Amino acid sequence: MSQDGKPSSAGAVAGVDALSQDLLAHALAGVHDPRDRKSCRLASRAFARAEAASRRSARPLRCEALPRVLRAFPSLTSLDLSACAGLDDASLAAALSSAGGTELGVRRVSLARASGVGWRGLEAMVAACPRLEAVDLSHCVAAGDREMAALAAAAGLRELVMDKCLGVTDVGLAKVAVGCPGLDRLSVKWCREISDIGIELLAKKCPNLRSVDISYLKVSNESLRSLSTLEKLEEIALVGCMFIDDGGLRMLCAGNSLQSIDVSRCHHVTSQGLASLIDSQRFIQKINAGDSLHEIESCFLSKLSTIGETLTVLRLDGLEIFASNLQAIGDSCKNLAEIGLSKCNGVTDDGIASLVVHCGYLRTIDVTCCHLLTNDALAVIAENCRMVECLRLESCPFINEKGLERIATHCSHLKEIDLTDCRINDEALQHLASCSELEILKLGLCSSISDKGLVYIGSNCAKLVELDLYRCSAITDEGLAAVAQGCKKIRMLNLCYCTQITDAGLKHLSTLEELTNLEMRCLVRITGIGITSIAIGCTSLIELDLKRCYSVDDAGLWALSRYSQNLRQLTISYCQVTGLGLCHLLGSLRSLQDLKMVHLSWVSIEGFEMSLRAACGRLKKLKLLGGLRSVLSPELLQTLQACGCRVRWVDKPLVYKG
Amino acid sequence: MDRGQNHIHGQSAANLCYQFGSDNPLLGMGIQQPFVPFTSPFGASSSTNIPHMDWNPATMLDNLTFIEDKIRQVKDVIRTMVDNGGQLPCRQGDLTQQQQVVNADLTCLIVQLISTAGSLLPSLKNSSFLSHPPAGHMDTVNHVGSSSSFIPNVTTISEENKEDMCSPEDYEELFKGFTDGAMEGGIEIDNVFVEEQDAKDGDEGGDASMDGENLPPGSYELLQLEKDEILAPHTHFCSICGKGFKRDANLRMHMRGHGDEYKSPAALAKPPRDASAEHELVKRYSCPFVGCKRNKLHKNFQPLKTILCVKNHYKRSHCEKSYTCSRCHTKKFSVMADLKTHEKHCGRDKWLCSCGTSFSRKDKLFAHVALFQGHTPALPADEPKNSSDQISRVGSHQEPAKFPSSMSSSFMWGTSSSDDRGLDIKGLAGCSEDILSTGNFGSFNFSFGPADGFTGEPSGSTFSVLPPEHFQSAQKKGKN
């Protein structure tokens, strides 16, 4: 709460009250952090009023809050319901209708993973929000043609994401295409029922499409022929389209609007097809050809020079790339900002050197699993790419502290570095600590890292958001204390298998108020006391993994149910909890949607039955032991299914790992 | 004359029967007016409210001349028989054939006579409709229609029917149905000559462009069936027992039961088609529904090619769609074959548009949706609404085509038993049921030329109605 513009004394509050509402709103517009905004609201009613009047977006976490949110923020334009627990047709319709007789100005709605919402809810939403422009329905696996028909009533719709709406067929797509002719951006990724016929109609009915994602569809070149008629097409993603080949890419050659193409995992696309596309589409900025081209051919490399000026992103993951290829790429594409060479065999220090020597603007370099790279590569990257922000060096075993020293000294803008499975030590962390902009640090499987290294990190990387310490088994409570002390912004923390950590370490972590994701698998020493301190301190916690924390008992669950009201995803498999604790947990946590509870050997069948009944309407995903399937009452399972909950039954033996 | 000779030598009895059966010119009246001939011609005056029924003396004269010619022809044939019979007694087969030819010719004469008097039809109502026929006619029947072995048959049928159909109301009703039908059908009682004349005069369809072909109006013989004939379930009737058949082949099989003479290979053989094809005028058909493009009165008249075309066209366009698909319960058809074709393809996957149009294939639906603004594929649950729309639309579309079809059909033909009844009524109406029932049987045979190969069949019977010179001139014209 040390942000500027934050009133701290009573006198200042009086002054704030005197200011006009739009001035306050203007001042608030400069405050981006939601927590800071909350402080402002709490400090002064005037700020609260100004904020309420000017607030544009909201992300309610419980459906009970939705009507209040809609009433309180009249100028809301963006509504994110993806985390809204318990949302169903009735509550959505009721909330939208209770917002008063006035029409809602909401333009963007995200309903991602809102599996409880069906066509009735969507119909109500479309009716209540006449200015609707963007809807995200991704991962609503139950959504089908009827839902699309309801959405199609929103004639002004410009953006629609329906990834993994498994029930949508050509008919649903046709409904949307006919109903929303102004569609600008559409993603039908994973909608496996959609075929060429639907895409053809889409291209005919929505001529303004700029961005289309047809990844993983069973469509053929015919779809590309239809899409090639779109004059404004800028972005197209064809990930994993098995029936598309070079012929299809040639059809896309017409026009010159295309800016981004993703043909990764298209096994029938070769260098020649891509070369012919590049030859005619001269303004391409992004190419993702990962896992598709069988080999990089010279025809493709020579054509790259035609788009050398515009190309900024090139991903060639999983291909065999030699130094000469990389040199050709470097020669042609001077403006590259991102290069992806993940899992590319044949990438050597020389190759990297010949690439980066021309590409001074590189910001993201992904050399995951390029086993041959050594410190020399890091040295040449550090020398040439001063702007680099993201380095992915996972599984580069020859990299050590010397290389990282060069990087740390030259690349002060580094924000993300992935050193998973690299043999680095505390000294390397000492160098990296000088990168004060660091936000993401992944140190998984670096077993030689100790508390000392973490102390370095904690001392300088205040902006750290994500820290991965998976299987860094030398880490103890002191290390956590240092990190918790220095990196207050940490949101994601992975401590799996750092088995030396005890409740004391968790006590330190409880000062991380912004922590949302915490993974603590197999921390056998932590107990309910540690969980309690986490629950009380980390109020933002959304995801918690306690699998195989054998010592965690009901006390931990009591604390979670009492304090972690935002908890959405929880894994308590193998924990020593009883039916009573589980019941209380499921009965109290109103945001909980995803629960994994395998091998809870202390919980009786009645315990499962009762607790599941308590949480029935809210759960979306459930992982249970297969044996329970026949024991739990069929009505319960039916109710779960009816509420949009998917149960994953697992059958594995109970094995205790230390 | 020479044509008669051809018949005698070239064709079997069945064939001849068939030929007469396909005697289209007779269709127009042969079926409808069989009960007329023995009523008073003056009765016609009572039916002047029907415009087409006017008694045309010129036509009548033509017809009578023709009948006269025909009688002379038959006499010639019999004379040859007598002569030949003396010389070659061994050729028994030929003799029977000739006998049958003569029989057929005589039947034709009777029918012609009946049809000539057909214009007097409406007077029937006022005439002795229910009067009992004189018994003496029985002999004539035997002599004319069939061999003596069938007499009991005929009599029993008529006896039965007399009993069945004695209620005056029934007759009244049936008659009404019949006349109504005639009214609706545009009352095509005028005989073939008139039709031919019409075509020649170019009164109508002067510049009709036919489907695919472009026959000038006069170059074909234009025929028009009545709707009752079109809708008749059977087109071939046994001249002995009156049983109806859809196919000529089935009739031939049936005939075997009536005696050994029908079992000969010649009698069972399929009648050859090419006998006199080259001399024939092309036949085209007109739909009896006035206002239809297939009706000869239409400005852009397009004739129908075959009887089958006529039947299907009439049922599809002017009849109620009484066959409902048992799977979707939505689609209706008036032609059974259409229903069967549909049922083959009618499955769960019915691709329906929001406008109510349905498609068997998804790509067809999507092409339709792409073509029309605002149309979308319908979801399964939308179906009931749309289908009801569709039904109502279809219903309204079909409205004008409604008519007492069941009535008229039962009157005219019915099926099996009711069939006979219908026939008998006519017989009763005509005061001489016996002659007429036989005549009717004969005429049934003729009238509904088999659906199969009706067109291809060179119907020598044209001669039986058309005067030779008339035919020749028409043919000449066609050549030109």
Please provide a written account of the structure.
- The complex is a heterodimer of chains A (658) and B (480).
- With 658 residues, chain A is of the alpha/beta class.
- Among the domains of chain A are: 53-192 and 204-209, Alpha-Beta Horseshoe (Leucine-rich repeat, LRR (right-handed beta-alpha superhelix)); 210-311, Alpha-Beta Horseshoe (Leucine-rich repeat, LRR (right-handed beta-alpha superhelix)), CATH 3.80.10.10.
- Chain A is built from 28 helices and 24 strands.
- Chain A has a 24-stranded parallel sheet, with no helix packed on it.
- In chain A, strand 2, helix 6 (89-97) and strand 3 form a beta-alpha-beta unit.
- In chain A, helix 3 (34-43) crosses helix 4 and helix 15 packs parallel to helix 16.
- By secondary structure, chain B is mainly alpha-helical.
- Among the domains of chain B are: 59-82 and 100-117, no CATH class; 220-269 and 281-320, no CATH class.
- Chain B has 21 helices and eight strands.
- Chain B has a two-stranded parallel sheet with strand order 1-4. A two-stranded antiparallel ribbon of chain B has the order 2-3. A two-stranded antiparallel ribbon of chain B has the order 5-6.
- In chain B, a hairpin with a 7-residue loop joins strand 5 (323-324) and strand 6 (332-333).
- The longest helix of chain B is centred in the N-terminal third of the chain and has 31 residues, at 57-87.
- The two termini of chain B are 25 Å apart.
- Chains A and B meet through helix 8, helix 9 and helix 10 of A and helix 15 of B.
- Chain A: It comes from Digitaria exilis.
- Chain A: It holds the Pfam family DUF7885.
- Chain A: This is F-box/LRR-repeat protein 15-like leucin rich repeat domain-containing protein.
- Chain A: One of its GO terms (biological process) is SCF-dependent proteasomal ubiquitin-dependent protein catabolic process.
- Chain A: Residues 411-586 form the F-box/LRR-repeat protein 15-like leucin rich repeat domain.
